[in-house]
Amino acid sequence: MSQASPLYTFPQPTIKSMRDLRFGSARAKTPQAKIYEISKTDMSIQEQQPAELYTSLEELSDALPGNTPRFIVLSYPLITTDGRYKTPYVLIYFLPVTATQQAKMLYAGAVEIVRAQADVNKLIEITDEEEMLEIESLLNE
Amino acid sequence: MSHQVHSLGHVPISDHSFSTDRSKLALARDISVEIYDTGSKYSLNTTLSGHDKTVTSVDIAPQSGRIVTCSQDRNALVWEPSPDGTYKPTLVLLRINRAATYARWSPDEKKFAVGSGARAIAICYFEEENDWWVSKHIKKPLRSTVLSVSWHPNSVLLSSGSTDSHARVFSTFIKGVDERPEPTIWGDRVPFQTLCGDFVSPAGGWVHDAVFSPSGNALALVTHDSSITIVYPSGPEQPPAAVVNVSTTLLPFKTLVWLSENEIVAAGHDCHPVVFTGSDQSGWALDHSVDDPNDAKKNASSRESTALNMFRQMDLKGTPQASADDASLPTIHQNTITKLRPYAVSGGRVNKVSSTGVDGRVVIFDV
């Protein structure tokens, strides 16, 4: 399912924002993340306003809405169990249980498209803001 | 002491709620909710049918007039009144997999709490962003069906009575919906689902009802061991200042209402309300019975004790005494009273309570 869906669109600012994050975060020392949402009006993928580059998991967790899904592109530098440095680049699909059916379906349809556009290695699904803080253990396996 | 009695059919009433001006009465009966216009005689106005199984609870919000109903079909509905007198239902997804047992609006009407058989309490609030009702669950220490919930005046603390014999006080603070409450005797920093108190009655038994006092500084619970327990907390994370238990030889109570800080009325399987009085200093005790069956027995007019009557009775009933209470109970209610609600306030205390039960009657008692 790699063909572009006619429903979801990627405006230029979003494409640029994703590209900046992908190439800008390779050598960063802190986590780098951006939150993306689907605009209700024209079904386009846009950065959540106010647009910000989050550098800590706590800030990121606080910025997430409690009841609507979101896509988060995260670059997280860490040291593996055998001592190597690595910086995984992942897409986090935040899907709270309290979201409306309509929202769940809207975001579910866009997951693959966003994954392809953001050019990430891995997809992680979380259902709770608290799970965000434990992401390191998931990334380190 | 004349009590108003309204016999509105024989189908058991699970719950009732009056509107603030007492002009409307909502009765939860079988799978629908009946709205009556009150007056000297109660007449049926509309019937709200939206549930597939028995409606277990109904509550009318004091200011906005919105009605919340919950049912054994695992759903809750919020009924919005429209100007022409009809109600429009909105489904609330509670996300529980067992029956809902009890629903109440918070005093500020921004949220409502629903107890359920799924060992969880669903706290529901309306989210403007998504234009629908969201429900958050309190699950952590609950180990069995929640039988009742009751709000503290600050709309953040909630007490719950459960069949695991515990009455618990939780915080239901929701960021974005509630303002940070003033610190109370139950706790200061209160994030969602914090357990602020956990109480058991000495002999154990299901907690049928657990209600905060009008000030919110005490908690009364009625349990299936036929006793009433009043808890006075001393401070957060500390053992309570006083836990007073009054054991009775009556049948268990199912419901209670605080008349003032020093008086409680409870009712249950004995079919008549009973008043307790006391305080944290002097302790609590049973004061008197309202609609006392013993009084009724004494006042029962003695029938003519002629020989003819005696043999007539023997033929009819098998015993020579004409006992008037064979066919019916001496109390006004003919079956268990399941819900008491405050009806009228005068001089700082509740002086009338409304009651409904399994016999399908609505009675307003003077207390």
UniProtKB/TrEMBL annotation, chain A:
Occurrences of domain ADF-H (ranges): 6-141
Signal peptide region: none
Key word Cytoplasm present: yes
Gene3D superfamilies: Severin (3.40.20.10)
GO MF assignments: actin binding; Arp2/3 complex binding
Family matches, as SMART domains: ADF
UniProt main location, coarse: cytoplasm
Keyword terms of this UniProt record: Cytoplasm, Nucleus
Coiled coil: none
Pfam families in alphabetical order: Cofilin_ADF (PF00241)
Listed GO biological process terms: actin filament debranching; negative regulation of Arp2/3 complex-mediated actin nucleation
InterPro entries recorded: ADF-H, ADF-H/Gelsolin-like_dom_sf, GMF
Record-level GO cellular component terms: actin cortical patch; nucleus
Family membership noted in the UniProt record: Belongs to the actin-binding proteins ADF family. GMF subfamily.
Protein name: ADF-H domain-containing protein
Lineage: Eukaryota, Fungi, Dikarya, Ascomycota, Saccharomycotina
TrEMBL record, chain B:
Keyword Protease belongs to the record: no
WD repeats: 48-80
Places the protein is found: Cytoplasm, Cytoskeleton, Actin patch
UniProt keyword terms in alphabetical order: Actin-binding, Cytoplasm, Cytoskeleton, Repeat, WD repeat
Alphabetized InterPro entries for the sequence: ARPC1 (IPR017383), WD40/YVTN_repeat-like_dom_sf (IPR015943), WD40_repeat_dom_sf (IPR036322), WD40_rpt (IPR001680)
GO BP, one annotated term: Arp2/3 complex-mediated actin nucleation
Pfam families: WD40 (PF00400)
Signal peptide: none
Known function: Functions as component of the Arp2/3 complex which is involved in regulation of actin polymerization and together with an activating nucleation-promoting factor (NPF) mediates the formation of branched actin networks.
Similarity comment text for this entry: Belongs to the WD repeat ARPC1 family.
PANTHER family (UniProt xref): ACTIN-RELATED PROTEIN 2/3 COMPLEX SUBUNIT 1, ACTIN-RELATED PROTEIN 2_3 COMPLEX SUBUNIT
Listed name of the protein: Actin-related protein 2/3 complex subunit
Lineage: Eukaryota, Fungi, Dikarya, Ascomycota, Saccharomycotina
